Amino acid sequence: MGSVSSSNAKKLIKIDVSADTVCPWCFVGKKNLDKTIASSQDKYTFEWHPYMLNPSAPKEGVLKKEYYLNKFGPRAVQMEARMAEGKYFGQPQANFLILD
């Protein structure tokens, strides 16, 4: 039978992240990852990779308000209001989606 190590040594964990900066689910995932890391005693390194939800977006970027309104139509206003209330995943004031 194998033995189980009871070492308390910190592990170095490499995480590759593919994310889009305008994706609300990427934001939620990052917040949850931050909580996990904060409660861990291990060390982490990150390699960030872009994941483009809209690869045809201009390189100079677009205003989030306009992008969300174009993509989701009138629902964008409802989505923003619900996110601002913190109803998703217990996140307080998800300002990244405020469409003002």
From TrEMBL:
It comes from the Eukaryota. Residues 15-85 form the DSBA-like thioredoxin domain. Gene3D superfamilies: Glutaredoxin. This is DSBA-like thioredoxin domain-containing protein.
